[in-house]
Amino acid sequence: MWARILAIMLKELRQLSRDRMTFGMIVMIPLVQLLLFGYAINTDARHLPAGLVDMSASSYSRALVQAVKATQVVDFKAKYASIEQAEAAITSGEVRAVLYLPADLNARLVNHPAFDRRQSDSQLTRPVAQWLVDGSDTVIAAAIRSLRSMPLDEVAGFSSQNRVPSFEVVQYFNPEQRTVVNIVPGLLAVILTMTMIMFTSAAIVREREQGNMEFLITTPVKPMELMVGKIIPYVLVGLIQVSIILSVGHFLFGVPVRGGLDSLLLASLLFIFASLSLGLVISTIAKTQLQAMQLTVFILLPSILLSGFMFPYEAMPIAAQWIAEALPATHFMRMVRAIVLREADILMLAKDAFWLGAFTLGGVLLASLRFRKRLG
Amino acid sequence: MTQSADAGASSATQATLSIDSSKAIEAPLAIEAHGLTRRFGELTAVDNLSLAIPRGSIYGFLGPNGCGKSTAIRLLTGLLLPDAGEVTVLGEPLAGNEEALKQRIGYMTQKFSLYDNLSVLENLRFVASIYGLFGRRGKARIEELLHLYSLEGRESQLAGSMSGGQKQRLALACATLHSPELLFLDEPTSAVDPENRREFWERLFDLCAAGTTILVSTHYMDEAERCHALAILERGAKRADGSPAELMQQMGASVVEVSGEQLRTLKQQLVALPEVVSAAQVGTRLRVLVRRDATDPIAFLSPYCDGRKLAMARPSLEDVFVSCTGGRHVG
Predict the structure, then answer these.
(1) Strand pairing of B43-54 and B213-218?
(2) Which of A122, A326, A125, A371 is nearest to A228 (CA)?
(3) Based on the domain organization, do A149 and A188 belong to the same domain?
């Protein structure tokens, strides 16, 4: 039995090493995606293009605009003469927000407690100006909303009193709040989901498509031997990808790897096995490599969107959380972020680890039950 | 049409009887099948097929594309489950013994089913270890096969870069690596030139002489003629079986060759007659198959042939095939 598994494994490795395209993809997919997403994805919105309608045209209005610019949230790209022009600019997508400074800006400022602390909130207090925002993108709207209670001391020309916040926030694990720190370990889960499921499902479906399977199933080889022999080479491939992603993440993006490498290896192996078994199940359903690819994408999209890679798991409705729980990527996302960023060890993550193990067993069982040594 | 189908069926029963009577004296059977049927949806790919193939013979399935040859072979190897019928392979019932029998049978698929991006030697080694032939035993067997199938010197060539004939020899080497007692070949020579085909059949006779039973499917008449016995399949059903000589002898039609002018028009005229199974032009002559019930075929045909020369001819396997299938596929 082991000899046959070894023979299948060697054959698979040999084929893999001759398939330059696939071999290149093993290295290039994680590398390119890591560079792309590492630089591109940033949930901290800055330098949004904005417009200005200044009806006041006073020294205060210029000071206010300077103060807003200093926050770096927006860049003023254009000035508009009227509100109507500004609205048209938002509709056309020229700018994402417009700051409207009313003609009575100076009066409003003087009555505002943020400008002059001798003033208290009264009937006369009104906001000094208005933001018009393209609210369809919630990230952008939230960034502008954060300007709502911007201090106005600088406009007033004196750096003022000591402001005491209601809460003090201590940011563990990612004090500089860099998105890439959270993205890189998450990418590990996404890239492994994609390549592992795709490679295994395609590897078996290819044999069927090219007619190799018809010969193989007339030999005494057992389905379990075939499956195990076919997936072990891809475990190696998965580990290579893990090391590429983490080392590039570490050296290029300064992502810390705090947890123990043993925990990381164990968690990665569990996830690789779970993904491979999912690939095996797909290979027993798909008839062609194209179908295998489509099914992979069917799994991949929810893995990206629901696993917590893009949006916090806790923010999703309960039903979506259930679906997310069923995806191996969700569990690995939790584990890898905990291990890499928060120095957790695998024992603290036993629940997720157990789930991945159970998923693998279930997948292999289902695949060998579905895989029959028959045609038609 | 219905008449011709009846004629085919009656000759089939005749042929079956002749095989059955010889069964008692001959060696035990390699394959015995009764009422084998397999449907794919509406289509009945194999229809009530019964076979008795003696050991040590080369048995052919002759039929047009889509007649159920491949399905029949897949049913006999256990790759497909029949909807009805029973198969006994090498003395053991196939159902339930598929895995055990896989060590004793070899199968060469219609399409090249080895790995294009592995070398000749790597393919052979892979198949050897799948069959449990390791170390010195496997190595010796591979050496033997490389020599036998003239693949020496090509050990490190990738299988995908070989010619059709070489691929086919490699496939045969892999299919016979574990020295099977029964070998299935599904249209083995469809991608091979005539010279390689001839060569290939020499190898098959070598294997047969060494005691291997071979079941080969083909749509080439010349190949079918080399078989010890064959079954003519059409639309999943067996129309006739027996040795090529028997089949020609028992054919339900006579062959008349007409030579003269304007054969194309004559052909149109003749095939319209119910007594004529088919007419096909061969060079300057028209080969006409006339149903046996016309007692004197020449006398029957001459009124239509005004002045052209008519002569009886020796039936060929193609004539047998055409008369069995009622001329639906040829001419």
Answers:
(1) unpaired
(2) A371
(3) no
Distance CA B153, CA B168 (A): 17
User: Chain B residues within 8 A (CB-CB) of chain A?
Assistant: 40, 74, 77-81, 98-99, 102-103, 105-107, 109, 111-118, 122, 125-127, 129-132, 134, 158, 174-175
Distances (CA, A) of A60 to A56, A69, A86, A301, B48: 9, 14, 21, 50, 98
CATH number for the domain including A69? 3.40.190
Full domain range(s) for residue B7: 2-26+53-64+98-248
Q: Which residues of B touch A206 (CB under 8 A)?
A: none
Give the closest-approach CA distance of A3 to chain B in angstroms. Answer: 7
Rg of chain B (C-alpha set):
22
Please tell me the distance from the alpha carbon of residue A129 to that of residue A107, in angstroms, as a whole number. 11
Q: Are residues B261 and B226 in the same domain?
A: no
- Per the structure block, which two tokens stand in for B35? 């009422």
Range of the domain at A196: 2-41+177-370
Identify the bridge partners of residue A49 per DSSP, sorted by sequence position. Answer: A75
Interchain CB distance below 8 Å, A214 and B130: no
pLDDT digits (tens, 9 = 90+) for A65-111: 998 998 889 999 999 999 999 999 999 999 999 999 999 998 888 88
Distance, in Å, from the CA atom of A147 to the CA atom of B329, rounded to the nearest integer, reads 84
Tell whether A89 is covered by a domain: yes
Helices (H), A93-171: 105-110, 138-145, 153-156
* Band of residue A121 on the pLDDT scale cut at 50, 70, 90: low
